[in-house]
Design goal:
The chain is α/β, with parallel strands linked by helices. The chain contains 15 helices and 10 strands.
Amino acid sequence: MKKLTLVFTMVLGMCLLAGCSNAGEKVYVYNWGEYIDPEVIDLFEEETGIKVVDDYFESNEEMYPKIKAGAVQYDVVCPSDYMIQKMIEEDLLTEINFENVPNIKNIDPSYLKSSEQFDPGNKYSVPYCWGTLGILYNKTMVEEPIDSWSAIFDEKYSGNILMIDSVRDAFGIALAYLGYDINTTNETELDEAKTLLQEQYPLVQAYVVDQVRDKMIGGEAAIGVIYSGEAIYTKRENPDLEYVVPKEGSNVWIDSWVIPKNSRNKENAEAFINFICDGEIALKNFEFITYSTPNSIARNLIKDEDIKNSTVAFPDQTVLDRCTTFQYLGEEVESMYIDKWNEVKSQ
């Protein structure tokens, strides 16, 4: 990265000489934990003079109320697809001025097309990372290779299952296993999924999100529900671990950068998004967080052939064909999902 740092230093130097320093400027970033390389933040601050003030969340449902309330004014947020759709419908986001984000050209058009499912016209969001949801299992702790969601509902793994603590992901798994649409609004189907999750409850060692990574690396459980990017990291740390997208289907998701309507530093936010979309910066982030990048320049720059051709990071079409993107289902249905999830967790 010496060459990259040198370029940034030269750019910053020219900017300072021209009297265009942004000293004192800030951008408030609300992101998933450990979802950006700290060196990228340093490089952004060095190049632009804009100070990054960051805060973190563990789920879309934790993030949303803070944006809705507006008590804390963030400039850049990184929600998932269905939550972006909800925030657009509720007029919580502002349109991005893409004249300030020329690096949007580095995002593979296929991901922009996918984003139109939740952001028609790609007016409010810029894809950052994407991936699948699946099962991570320890090959030394299970009887045979796993290819079905049935494993996380199997009594023989009681006390050895790490279940994801996310309402849409949990219900998506149960619905897919039962053969239903993971975006169903049918209450009878949701009740069946709820019953299945309630039956699973006594088998679960812990409900987790980020914690699944360390627990699986340490051999604390045989099976864990995990996002594909975390699976890449854990497989590196523990070669006994294997990741699979179950045959019944799963969720394929896109996390994107958006700008809340009450942002006080919109141009700084756009400068931040543009910086993140630089090919070399996107590569640096990919190497740090191991979540799949939609940046075509970054993917071409990957030197590790195992990672470049990883079916976990970049699954083939046969896997993607059995995966579905979550959609925002409306406030009434969303409340129904949450109420039923609370019933599962309150046993």
